[in-house]
Amino acid sequence: MTTHPRTGTGAAAQHPAAADSHEMIRVHGARENNLRDVTIEIPKRRLTVFTGVSGSGKSSLVFHTIAAESQRLINETYSSFVQGFMPTTARPEVDVLDGLTTAIIVDQQPMGADPRSTVGTATDANAMLRILFSRLGQPHIGSPNAFAFNVPSVRASGAITVERGAKKTVKQTFSRTGGMCTRCEGRGTVSDIDLTQLFDDSKAISEGAFTIPGWKSDSWWTVRTYAESGFLDPDKPIRDFTEKEMHDFLHREPVKVKVEGVNLTYEGLLPKIRKSFLSKDREAMQPHIREFVDRAVTFTDCPECEGTRLSEAARSSRIDGTNIADACAMQISDLAAWVRDRDEPSVAPLLATLRRTLDSFVEIGLGYLSLDRPSGTLSGGEAQRVKMIRHLGSSLTDVTYVFDEPTIGLHPHDIQRMNNLLLRLRDKGNTVLVVEHKPETIAIADHVVDLGPGAGTAGGTVCFEGTVEGLRAGDTLTGRHLDDRATLKEKVRTPTGKLPIRGATAHNLRDVDVDIPLGVLVVVTGVAGSGKSSLLHGSLVTTDQAADAGVVAIDQGAIRGSRRSNPATYTGLLDPIRKAFAKANGVKPGLFSSNSEGACPHCNGTGVIYTDLAMMAGVATTCEECEGKRFHPSVLEHRLGGRDISEVLAMPVTEAAAFFATGDARTPAATRVLDRLADVGLGYLGLGQPLTTLSGGERQRLKLATHMGEKGGVHLLDEPTTGLHLADVQHLLGLLDRLVDSGKSVIVTEHHQAVMAHADWIIDLGPGAGHDGGRIVFEGTPADLVAARSTLTGRHLADYVAG
């Protein structure tokens, strides 16, 4: 007889406890984004893979419904005071969500690009190293703060009044030793500004000496403040300023001045430039401002700390000849070995935890990184794996882990390692939900959910739910393409030229010499960390030959914009549309912008009214005046081809392309942009859909469509298969072929074997990652690589085309 663990009776085995009945996550009536009343049951403590074409609703179901509701419910357990400091989200559009467990989201969102954020600070490895050096470092210089490049040294003294019983005034002194370099303030780099790019010193301020974008001679807040501050002679050429005038002009601390009766702040030119230009993210700048900054400012390693960010005192304390800057600069696999060699009983628990953390880096395939690597330079795949570090050794069970394409940026050789990690998390008793396209990861799933059948409005339904074998046998788009294999080209193109790279030493490259052929499709591959990005973005893009050849780099960086930004505004499509409406109706183009004159005055062109409810989720209600159309009612009276501007922005790309191709609405400039959007597989996207709702793959293809219209002769793409469904890869290969056949050169960093097989030329880096890589291990055609099988890539590609 089986004994029940709680009652000790065999009868209980026939009547399991009620708690044991919650073995499923049940979703009923999910309608988030494009989901169409989806009902589904997901088994707990199993690995479930969600697949489907890009835009089919995978992220809407997994991230915006299941994970979002789990996190919202957890946040509600905190006090209202604490909730006020947390991000607030509304309950997803779903009828019933049952059986949820705590969700931990490991997504591809880039890690903070703050210049003081590094791999070490993001994973707490740096904090443990600081404690280690504060305990064992010689000479002893202080607490862990003394080794922190984010902590400045502070000293203060003065009188304070203690109001306890009788008031008492006492003298206090305070000091804190930090590890921040005082010259670069913990950034590791200093900026040198070329004064000749800021002003013409042969002219006076009143004669328009400034050459800074936007600084016109009658500018109230800038030029006139300098001219009428009283510190300078505005009619004297700048080169004739006295030493005091030049100091006030360039370096004066902020001070209040009165200009024509108005109180303004006067500040030296250099600190003003640093605040108004250098404090902003370069990628968020307008093109002409970015060009000015690139021309006027150079960044070099700080001469005082030699780029380590740390004070001289922090660098003087050593453990067996190694200081903390040396430790953070080591490749993590080497640092792990260094930590293993330390044997000090007084810090044994710290060493054990630090060893586990560093070994997790190596295990997850990031042993080639260093702790001082700025976190903003990590790719989406690297950032996701760094976030996994803290979960690998966790003792938590019955947790739901949610992953967004964890194989992104991984060589086929590394995918098996990632699969093993996902299975380990599952085998500890956790529920693992993975959004993924790679067949290697789909193959290990216990349960598969296939969404579709199409994208956007054509998706949002569950096409298949069951085992991998059932998916393979089923008649869905994913099932039909699951075993797709590309074939090697029978004939490759002949190069029309070459881009030479000589003596490349960026990051881990070892004095690499290579000629990149032009006029063909070139694939640069190799394991993660082998030096691909260093070769192309760190060496090629910076050469004069690249500038002469017109190299256009299209990376995976996030598109910056507010909820007002949409595909029409981002691609420049809205400009010809506005002009067409204006010409057809005899009015100004500005009327047809919801960010300008034509905006609904009630909602300011957003289409919704946002109500902030403090620690509760804010409420967005459709604007009653414009009914969500975002435009003033009078603007909607103007029509083009029988449609108003709000109806046009509601069209998907394919419908809009047909609309602007013929008849009264014919607009060739708009059609060219729309054709490029359809060409990259975004035909289902709405013209007015906010950019904030796009997936990572959609954002990247939107950037690709935008750059396709540029004149650059060489397109440099960074893993364009990211976020692409198996069925879309063939479409991408056709697009790359059309780009090359149109006279452009295409250089692709890629791990997908189908793209490798389709290449005209392959450059393979390796043989390993970090200091084990950085060399060219193969150059030639895909057929030669398969025949030689001399590299990891060659062996995996040979197995792929043979399978």
From TrEMBL:
Q: Which PROSITE patterns does this chain map to?
A: ABC_TRANSPORTER_2 (PS50893)
Under the heading Gene3D superfamilies, the entry gives: ABC transporter ATPase domain-like, ABC transporter ATPase like domain, P-loop containing nucleotide triphosphate hydrolases
- The primary location reported for this protein is cytoplasm
Subcellular location per the Swiss-Prot or TrEMBL entry: Cytoplasm
Endpoints of the signal sequence: none
Region of interest called Disordered, as start-end residue ranges on this chain: 1-21
Question: Highest taxon of the source?
Answer: Bacteria
Q: Which residues form the ABC transporter domain?
A: 19-478, 492-792
The record's keywords, sorted A to Z, are:
ATP-binding, Cytoplasm, DNA damage, DNA excision, DNA repair, DNA-binding, Excision nuclease, Nucleotide-binding, Repeat
PANTHER family annotated for this entry?
A: DRUG RESISTANCE ABC TRANSPORTER, UVRABC SYSTEM PROTEIN A
Family, per entry: Belongs to the ABC transporter superfamily. UvrA family.
The name this protein carries in UniProt is UvrABC system protein A
Source lineage: Bacteria, Bacillati, Actinomycetota, Actinomycetes, Kitasatosporales
